[in-house]
């Protein structure tokens, strides 16, 4: 396009939201894999730290989902680390589309 002798090029950017979501989920999976693989179980503090969610949000969003792996030992909740990571990735993928 020419305006007063100056050529102006317009740039059009199209973003594929599905591709962005796929890349985002891959990066989350990479980050989860990089967490300490020696940890067999997470406790509630680990779960909150690793998800960056509050305990209230965790309870509201997925804690009572029957598929969510958890075991109460005396007064402490334990979450098998690998199964919990897998559940969280699947759960996140199913949120909002």
Task: Explain what this protein looks like in three dimensions.
There is one protein chain. Helix 1 packs antiparallel against helix 4 (81-94). This protein has a domain at 39-97: Orthogonal Bundle (Arc Repressor Mutant, subunit A), CATH 1.10.10. The strands form two sheets. It has a three-stranded antiparallel beta sheet with strand order 3-5-4. A two-stranded antiparallel sheet has the order 1-2. It is of the alpha+beta class and 97 residues long. The protein has helices spanning 17-34, 44-51, 55-63, 81-94, and strands spanning 2-3, 6-7, 41-42, 71-73, 76-80. The chain has four helices and five strands. The mean pLDDT is 87.
Query: In terms of per-residue confidence, which ranges show pLDDT below 50 for 5 or more consecutive residues?
Result: none
What share of residues are in beta strands?
5-15%
Number of helices: 4
Return the CATH topology of the domain at 39-97: Arc Repressor Mutant, subunit A
* Whole-number mean pLDDT: 87
| Overall strand count | 5
CATH architecture of the domain at 39-97: Orthogonal Bundle
């Amino acid at each position: 396009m020419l305006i007063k002798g100056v050529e102006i090029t317009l740039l059009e950017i199209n973003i594929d939201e599905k591709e962005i979501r796929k890349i985002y989920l891959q990066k989350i999976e990479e980050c989860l894999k990089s967490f300490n693989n020696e940890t067999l179980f997470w406790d509630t503090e680990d779960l909150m730290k690793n998800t960056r969610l509050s305990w209230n949000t965790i309870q509201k969003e997925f804690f009572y989902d029957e598929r969510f792996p958890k075991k109460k030992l005396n007064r402490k909740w334990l979450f098998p680390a690998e199964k919990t990571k897998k559940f969280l990735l699947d759960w996140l993928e199913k949120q909002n589309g």
